[in-house]
Write a structure and sequence with these properties.
Strand content: under 5%
CATH architecture of the largest domain: Up-down Bundle
Number of domains: 3
Distance between the termini: 26 Å
Shape: globular
Oligomer: single chain
Helix content: over 70%
Radius of gyration: 21 Å
Number of helices: 16
CATH superfamily of the largest domain: MFS general substrate transporter like domains
CATH topology of the largest domain: Growth Hormone, Chain: A
CATH class of the largest domain: Mainly Alpha
Structural class: mainly alpha
Number of strands: 0
């Protein structure tokens, strides 16, 4: 594909717009997590119900992101990308206006459709605009923008909850998203110079989404009622749907998921490592606001300012991780990064009813250090393991793996917490709001500690898969 003829000024403006999309996506995700305890209190609903606010977003991304990348190649990335901003802004504003929790969840799906359009096409647009030179720098700027959103999301979200109310977490997205849409339509060139008649592979999309949704519904039922026939049925549906996904992907001439790539050990090990590290992160950031507000009595603003230390470490050290990957390869760095992630989970499992700020900040900073040493080397190793023509497929596989882990992480965190409460004598049906946990703090602290201990075990799987990946090529 030929690189569009751009002036350097327009090229920079286009990159700024793509970076804005990355920033907005991360900002929205992290600010909503901080507000979940407040939203559960507002609607007088359970943790199991409020978890569907992030789940609805993540599951929609899982089902659509690969097909939306193809849609951009089929119809033109510019229009699809700009439409994504519009849907993201309108869906977010509708969430803020919703009087019922189920309506917020429905509009989160609309918001996620927009997010899938932006995420799926943003990286492709930046890669095309910087095809001749500067592509690495452009992708680095996108990564930096995403993590800046991760930094500002918790603090902005906490501040809004404490001052003007949780609904403004959704309202703030609309003007930014609409301005980004107008900017994209005005300045972005069309980077698809030869549109092809790509199949969106609806069968692959549906079977992939069914596999993940059925698995999460089964986990939720385990959290509510324990093991029974409903979780078994959900598990059977998930396994059946996954089998159909494999069957149809093998027969498709242009599959959503190129399964032949999994024969490469470094790639398969990298995907598994990425999955378990991402799952442990998402579970932690789902549980942590409830612990900080329910046990330590933090305000939402204090929660945001505490969580920010994780992203600060990443912004400072992530470029060093990429630099080291070119010199040391991915196996050692990813193994160390996974070990630090596991150590961070163990640190969270030691938190008690009277833990100080330092006790919370240390595992958060360990988690950030682990991610800095893991993420860039892992991606670099996977990309180096395949031929250049497969880089797009690897990028899509990596994005899908991470989003499935994010959706699973929310469900796993909720299930573990509720089952530990049940083990200590409290059924999920009578779990009080987090503002009332002080009277039974010991029980809730034990449930948090048990949950993070199990999550540490899941993170430890990434240590094994990282160590088994084999040596990779390095520059």
């Amino acid at each position: 594909m030929a690189q569009p003829n751009l002036t350097s000024k327009l090229q920079r403006l286009a990159l700024a717009n793509v970076c804005l999309g990355q920033f907005l996506s991360a900002l929205d995700s992290r600010s909503v997590n901080v507000a979940l305890p407040t939203i559960s209190l507002y609607f007088e609903t359970s943790l199991a119900a409020v978890q569907w606010i992030p789940l609805a977003y993540q599951l929609t991304i899982v089902g659509l992101v690969l097909s939306m990348a193809r849609l951009g190649d089929k119809l033109g990335r510019k229009k699809i990308y700009a439409l994504g901003f519009v849907l993201l802004g309108v869906g977010s504003a509708a969430c803020g206006l919703s009087p019922q929790l189920w309506q917020i969840i429905c509009f989160r799906v609309i918001e996620a459709i927009g997010g899938a359009l932006v995420l799926a096409n943003g990286r492709a647009i930046a890669s095309a605009l910087y095809a001749n030179e500067g592509r690495g720098r452009a992708l680095g700027m996108m990564s930096m923008s995403f993590h800046l959103g991760y930094i500002t999301g918790p603090s902005v979200g906490g501040f809004l909850v404490d001052t003007v109310g949780w609904r403004w977490i959704f309202f703030m997205n609309m003007p930014v998203a609409l301005a980004a849409a107008a900017m994209a339509w005005k300045i972005l060139p069309e980077t698809v110079t030869e549109k092809r008649d790509y199949s969106l592979d609806p069968v692959g999309m549906i079977t992939l989404l069914t596999t993940v949704v059925a698995l999460i519904l089964g986990l939720q039922e385990i959290g509510r009622s324990g093991f029974g026939w409903l979780p078994v049925l959900a598990g059977a549906v998930s396994i059946g749907s996954f089998s159909l996904l494999i069957y149809f992907q093998r027969r498709d001439a242009a599959p959503l998921l190129d399964l032949s790539l999994f024969k490469i050990r470094l790639l398969s090990a990298g995907m598994l490592s990425h999955f378990f590290v991402s799952l442990s992160h998402t579970s932690t950031f789902f549980l942590l606001p409830f612990y900080l507000q329910g046990i330590l009595r933090y305000t939402p603003t204090q929660v945001g300012l505490t969580v920010i230390f994780f992203s600060l470490v990443i912004v400072v050290l992530a470029p060093i991780g990429g630099w080291l990957a070119d010199r040391l390869g991915s196996r050692m760095l990813c193994t160390v990064g996974s070990a630090l992630t596991t150590a961070a989970m163990i640190g969270f499992s030691l938190l008690g009813a009277s833990s100080g700020k330092f006790a919370v900040m240390v595992p958060l900073m360990l988690l950030g250090l682990g991610w800095s040493l893991f993420q860039s080397p892992n991606l670099s190793g996977m990309f180096n393991a395949v031929e250049p023509r497969h880089i797009g497929s690897v990028s899509g596989l990596s994005l899908t793996s991470a989003n499935i882990a994010n959706a699973m992480g929310v469900a796993v965190g909720s299930v573990l917490f509720l089952r530990w409460l049940n083990y200590y004598g409290m059924t999920s049906a009578v779990v009080p709001p987090h503002t009332q946990w002080g009277g039974q703090a010991e029980m809730f602290v034990k449930a948090f500690q048990g949950s993070w201990s199990v999550i540490a075990g899941l993170a430890a799987i990434a240590i094994v898969t990282s160590a088994m990946r084999g040596a990779d090529r390095r520059k």
